[in-house]
Design goal:
Elements (H helix, E strand, L loop, with lengths): L1 E6 L4 H12 L3 E8 L10 E5 L18 E4 L10 H22 L4 E4 L10
Parallel strand pairs: 1-2, 1-4, 2-3, 4-5
């Protein structure tokens, strides 16, 4: 059985991943870590609201006991300088991955991108 950590659940891609996890019988538990609520209640779902993904120390102990992570956070690069975009995408992802992998050494970490998505459709 899978115990999943999910980020970006309030976004278009993350919400779709969350719905799949909640409907899948192989997923026992889902922990959503986000800056704002996903707005969904379900028996499998636990949610942690956390504003600073650069500092996970306050919630790090809550990230143990999982075997999969779907990292669905992201921002559009439109109008963003390269160093700012790198900080909000690559650096943030690596930091989160290192933190959850320290707590769960056999975890599968999946970076899920919405590249090319269009939320207006």
């Amino acid at each position: 059985m899978l115990k999943v950590i999910l980020t970006g659940a309030s976004g278009m891609v993350g919400e779709a991943v969350l719905m799949e996890c909640l409907q899948n019988e192989q997923v026992e538990k889902v922990l959503v870590v986000g800056r704002r609520t996903c707005g969904i209640q379900h028996d499998k779902l636990t949610e942690i609201l956390h504003s600073n993904f650069q500092d996970l120390s306050a919630i790090e102990q809550n990230l143990a006991g999982y075997n999969a992570c779907f990292f669905c956070l992201g921002v559009s690069s439109i109008g963003m300088k390269e160093d700012e975009y790198r900080k909000k995408t690559y650096d943030l992802t690596i930091h989160f991955a290192q933190t959850v992998l320290k707590q769960n050494t056999n975890m599968s970490f999946c970076y899920i991108s919405g590249a090319g998505t269009d939320s207006s459709e």
